[in-house]
Design goal:
- By secondary structure, this protein is an alpha+beta fold.
- The protein has a domain of 110 residues.
- It has three helices and nine strands; from the N terminus they run E-E-E-H-E-E-H-E-E-E-E-H.
């Protein structure tokens, strides 16, 4: 996890020596460059997620049952030791602050207005990843898909014009 300053959009990798912790927000490492570009262009983001192959579950971790330094030999052992499951977050999402809607979507993404947190209504873009096959090849393919999606998102963000208040004809 990285941290981005809410006003300057400076990126930090730790907050230990920062006195104004409340001025930073968490951002996934793989999506941080895109979020920085979007915010600097005026497309202020609310929250985001690059997607994850695994889901961490402390309740199912058997960390203490493995000898120190033991390296799991199978995916099932890996899952047991670390409490990970392949049912990770299977979408990349970026939510924008209320009133901010990009003029176009990144390739392969959908866009929608999110109303579940009324009165806070905002626009969100989403890319849904393919289902992860529980094999080494499946995980490699999923990681490749996440990486390619992050590249497309970044290139889209770079090409966007600076944000200006849209007229009603440009909203989705």
């Amino acid at each position: 996890m990285l941290y981005m300053h809410k006003k300057t959009f400076e990126i930090r990798d730790d907050l230990q020596n920062i006195t104004e912790i409340n001025n930073y927000f968490e951002v996934d490492e793989m999506i941080v460059s895109s979020i920085q570009v979007l915010n600097r262009k005026g497309y202020l983001t609310r929250d985001c997620c690059s997607g994850h192959l695994f889901k961490w579950n402390n309740e199912t971790s058997d960390w203490d049952k493995f000898p120190p330094g033991y390296k799991p030999k199978t995916l099932k052992e890996y899952e047991r030791k670390y409490g990970l499951s392949p049912a990770g977050i299977n979408v990349c999402e970026v939510a924008f602050k209320p009133g901010i809607v990009p003029p176009e979507l990144p390739p392969g993404f959908t866009g929608f207005t999110y109303t579940a947190l009324k009165p806070d209504v905002f626009f969100r873009i989403r890319y849904e990843y393919k289902k992860v096959e529980y094999t080494r090849a499946g995980f490699n393919a999923a990681l490749d898909e996440i990486t390619e999606t992050m590249k497309r998102l970044y290139m889209w963000a770079v090409r966007l014009p600076n944000f200006s208040v849209p007229n009603s004809n440009t909203l989705f």
